[in-house]
Amino acid sequence: MAKFFHVIQLNNARQAAGVNMSQINLFNTKTTPLVILAEGCFGEENTKIISALVRYGNWPIVAGLDSTRAGKTSKEILGYGVDFPIVSSIEEAMKYNPAAMLIGIAVQGGELPYEWRQIILNAIDNGLDIINGLHFFLNEDEEISKKAEEKGKILWDVREPLLPNRVCKNLPRPSKPKVVLTVGSDCSCGKMFTTLELEKTIKKSLFLATGQTGILISGSGIPLDRIIGDFMAGAAEHLVHSNLNENLDWLLVEGQGSLIHPSFSGVTMALMHGCAPDAMILCHTASRKYLKKFDIPIPSMNRLVEVYETAMGFIKPARVVGISLNCFDLDDDATDRILKETEDMTGLPTVEPLKTGVERLYESLVEELD
User: Fold this and answer.
1) pLDDT, mean of residues 159-179
2) Which residues, including other chains, have CB under 8 Å from residue 136's CB and lie 6 or more apart?
3) Is residue 90 within 8 Å of 130, Cβ to Cβ?
4) What's the start-to-end Cα distance of the chain, in Å?
5) Burial of 20 by CB count in 10 Å (0-12 exposed, 13-18 middle, 19+ buried)?
6) 3-state class of 106 per DSSP?
7) Which of 4, 224, 276, 302 is placed for a possible disulfide with 316 were both Cys, Cβ 3.0 to 4.6 Å?
8) Other CB atoms closer than 10 Å to residue 213's CB: what's the count?
9) What would the DSSP string read from start to end of 56-79?
10) For residue 13, pLDDT beyond 50
């Protein structure tokens, strides 16, 4: 199903003007009021996109849609961030004047829950554009795309790659800005949060998004996990080189997946080779002992450091210079204890980005690269 006319016209105009389509946001993230769809799951693990937007995004979020939590507020459920009401229906959400609805889940496989289809159709009928970060593309769904065309509404499939296919060429780079990549022990272990915290801490730095949530936060980036395998590293290389700027000291690349994960190791290796980092930060969920969805034990931090440095060394040697632990489910005492144990074991500065900040990671980067 072809995209409806005004999105085609918008994209064609941008391409004709020479705009890099890998770094396009169809909406102004500061002026587009959002309602976030999270029916039956607001605040649960598969809605980390909501947590990220609440912590780091610029979108004005006016409501969340989850009939099972209606009457509560976002801060009651999440415990942080801006406060907005949770409502039970699109009709109730319209009282808060949203302009678009964001599908607020990110799940393995990326399928759209069947029961959400009618909610999306109702949202379009009520005049809302739809923003979708799933692998399931709304523009390829006949019923939803037809409804959007009839109503003149935009369907933005954030994960749709809009850049030409490129293979990685291992292009040379100037010595400045330095490129830092977050890598992980697993998927969903804090790579994006760590990278965003580094951007908040480091002057003259730029966060480079490589996944749908990062793109929604920063307004630009590449949906690396939707790019054809042969061209993933080339897309990562292009992302870095298109953002080289003498006014920047640091490019901070959002990591994806894990080299030891059976499902997502390919995207990790492509990202490492494509962006060719000068240094890496290793991220890990402190309480996690096995890979998500697998009965595979996670190796020690020392072993993971060795794995990443070895894999990178064949292309462009880069050291792991610090460790970021996600301790969301640990109290302060347990967090302090695991931070010290990890630092003693590895000899690397170890932080919990949302509890301790990332200043020590920055100090380590400066010591290593500056």
Assistant:
1) 93
2) 110, 111, 112
3) no
4) 51
5) middle
6) coil
7) 276
8) 22
9) H----EEEEE-TTSTTSBHHHHHS
10) no
Alpha carbon of 64 to those of 37, 90, 100: distances in Å? Answer: 6, 10, 12
Q: Tell me, what DSSP letter sits at residue 254? A: P
SS3 category, 279? strand
Residue 323 is encoded by which pair of tokens?
């460790």
| Residue 111's pLDDT band (cuts 50, 70, 90) | confident
Q: pLDDT tens digits for 258-304?
A: 999 999 999 999 999 999 999 999 999 999 999 998 999 999 999 99
Q: What are phi and psi of 362, to 5 degrees?
A: -60, -45
**Which residues are paired to 283 by β-bridges?**
184, 324
In whole angstroms, give the CA distance from residue 134 to residue 138: 9
Residue 39 confidence class, pLDDT cut points 50, 70, 90: very high
The DSSP code for 30 is: T
The size of the chain, in residues, is 370
| Best CA proximity match to 201, nearest among 318, 44, 360, 48 | 360
Flag whether pLDDT at 23 surpasses 70: no
Only one residue has tokens 């580094």, namely 198
Structure tokens at 254: 């959002």
Q: Six-digit token pair at 341? A: 């144990």
Token pair 């935009």 is found at: 154
* C-beta separation of 36 from 104 below 8 A: yes
Residues 6+ apart with CB under 8 A from 70: 86, 87, 88, 92
Amino acid letter for position 225: D
Helix then strand then coil, in percent of the chain rounded to 5, is 40, 15, 45
Ramachandran angles phi, psi of 185, nearest 5°: -80, -15
CA atoms 329, 333, 338, 343: torsion sign: positive
- Residue listed under structure tokens 């609805």: 101
- Cα gap 10→240, rounded to integer Å: 25
Better-scored residue on pLDDT, 6 or 145: 145
- Full DSSP string of 76-115: HHHSSS---BEESSHHHHGGG--SEEEE----TT-PPPGG
Surface-to-core class of residue 193, CB atoms within 10 Å of its CB (0-12 exposed, 13-18 middle, 19+ buried): buried
Which residues are 236's β-sheet partners? Answer: none
- Indicate the SS3 state at residue 314: coil
Helix (H, G, I), strand (E, B) or coil at 84: coil
Matching residue, tokens 């296919």: 165
The token pair that represents 320 in the structure block: 């792991």
